[in-house]
Specification:
By secondary structure, the chain is an alpha/beta fold. Helices cover about 45% and strands about 15% of the residues. It has 13 helices and 14 strands. It has a 5-stranded parallel beta sheet with strand order 5-4-3-10-11, sandwiched between helices. Strands 6-7-8-9 form a 4-stranded antiparallel beta sheet. Helix 6 (about 225-235) crosses helix 7 (about 250-265), helix 10 crosses helix 12 (about 370-385) and helix 11 runs parallel beside helix 13.
Length: about 400
Amino acid sequence: MHAWPASEVPALPGQGRDLRIHDTATGGLVTLDPGPVARLYVCGITPYDATHLGHAATYNAFDLVQRVWLDTKRQVHYVQNVTDVDDPLLERAQRDDVDWVALAEKETALFREDMTALRMLPPRHYIGAVEAIPGIVPLVERLRELGAAYELEGDVYFSVESDPHFGQVSRLDAAAMRLLSAERGGDPDRPGKKNPLDPMLWMAAREGEPSWDGGSLGRGRPGWHIECVAIALDHLGMGFDVQGGGSDLAFPHHEMGASHAQVLTGEFPMAKAYVHAGMVALHGEKMSKSKGNLVFVSQLRRDGVDPAAIRLALLAHHYRADWEWTDQVLADAQARLGRWRAAVSRPDGPPADALVEEIRVALAADLDAPAALAAVDRWAELQDAQGGTDTAAPGLVSRAVDALLGVAL
């Protein structure tokens, strides 16, 4: 599966700062110190609907992570998956009487278009669950050999008790985990499981649903968590720098995936930091497909909204914050974009070297994009109030905003 084209990232004078970011597993800030190649895995979409602003906010956060690393002169090995076979996708295809493969391809293509328009840097590897199945089957078989998996009516489950580190990603108690498992695709009440929290590794073939040859597992399809584990281990290996996604993935998805990988390899941890973005709401409720309260990036673009304004609207909120999308949020972003473009369109302006460093400092401090935006606002206000004589300043500001914030002026 192919990703989307990369926008050019302008080079800036000087060098960026190492990123200090909030790690869910420790509950505090950690300073990331990758090697020459920083390794990032971000969980991708289940393509049964278009890209909404909740998706966009998440991918914007990890785009900033990439840009901070690139500014430190590192390379970035970024991997993202597509869950192109799963219950929600099959249910939507059945509801709309369309082929599930065609639906997944259509929505994945639209996601690529949205990411391109928003200037999100693409992953080096963009892998679908279906194409990962040949690598998933041996992992499930290995877990079974290790005594960490068991069969229940043809399905194969992972035993969470096989990982002594289980629970250390989300730091939740068993009662909270059980509630979230039921809400987020698990089956804690299924009779016969060794532990209600045990997640499915391999679902035996169901009538009328797609299935694949699973070798000794029989025909079926993979569970959600093992999909990402297979892709991450194949392309990044253990101990990669950041596992990312929305805050609703901390449990069960990232918790279970970490345990799968740790049992398979005997190493700990799967990722050096688990980083989670907040949720976006509309009319007081979290934006989600199940609630039907979505604002789609593609619809905003069709309505003529500049993608740079959409991106500025996302950047105006700290990535870990839960916030609400309103007409005013978009109006503020559009006004800010207009001010910035007017400021950099002049032939000269106030010196901007200090501004570049302000942006770098803000982003290195747990991706504080609102502080970075405020710094650019101050420069634009000074430009509007009194101008300046530095002929290089407007160009430097434009390049900095593009390189570090992903906004083309």
